[in-house]
């Protein structure tokens, strides 16, 4: 029964990730609870540490990719920072919108942050728009990467608990 409950939480957590919700951290919390309440075969400490490390890496990737794509699309370092800061502010500001608010806010914030930073740095409208589009593409790629890492974490936790 405990394994079934863990599987349900892992699937729900995986669904949370693309919406900008803390699905990776819910997975890690569920694994911790499962490991220390002894739902059959406990999950090892090494698994918990490595899963936690993967979750941190996924969070870093989410921010870095948006900034990296600004640079790929011709933006400046200032535009890259604008994408990171804008994405963070957008995710926080979007929370009041039910279900998808933080996701929409993060995408819009990355775009707006890069655009404002590029225009403030003296870039032309066309170049600033291109860099802002890069921030948007980067955010989409980052979301996909985070879901992929989340899927790996979910499978790892499930099979660690199962064996």
What does this entry show, briefly?
By secondary structure, the protein is mainly alpha-helical. The chain has six helices and no strands. Helix content is 82%, strand content 0%.
Explain how this protein is built:
The protein has 163 residues and is mainly α. The chain has one domain (2-162). It is built from 6 helices and no strands. The chain has helices at 2-16, 23-37, 45-72, 77-93, 101-120, 125-162. Helix 2 packs parallel to helix 6 (125-162), helix 4 (77-93) runs antiparallel to helix 5 and helix 4 (77-93) crosses helix 6 (125-162). The radius of gyration is 18 Å and the shape is elongated. The mean pLDDT is 90.
Topology (elements, then pairings):
Blueprint: H1 2-16, H2 23-37, H3 45-72, H4 77-93, H5 101-120, H6 125-162
Helix pairs in contact: 1-2, 1-6, 2-3, 2-6, 3-4, 3-6, 4-5, 4-6, 5-6
């Amino acid at each position: 029964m405990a394994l079934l409950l863990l599987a349900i939480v892992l699937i729900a957590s995986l669904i949370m990730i693309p919406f900008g919700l803390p699905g990776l951290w819910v997975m890690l919390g569920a694994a911790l609870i499962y490991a220390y309440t002894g739902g059959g075969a406990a999950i090892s400490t090494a698994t918990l540490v490595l899963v936690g490390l993967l979750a941190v890496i996924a969070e870093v990737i989410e921010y870095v990719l948006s900034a990296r794509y600004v640079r790929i699309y011709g933006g400046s370092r200032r535009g890259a920072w604008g994408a990171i800061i804008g994405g963070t502010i957008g995710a926080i500001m979007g929370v009041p919108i039910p279900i998808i608010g933080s996701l929409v806010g993060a995408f819009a914030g990355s775009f707006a942050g890069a655009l404002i930073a590029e225009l403030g740095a003296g870039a032309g409208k066309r170049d600033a728009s291109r860099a802002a589009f890069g921030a948007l593409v980067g955010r989409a790629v980052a979301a996909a990467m985070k879901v992929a890492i989340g899927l790996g974490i979910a499978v790892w936790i499930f099979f660690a608990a199962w064996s």
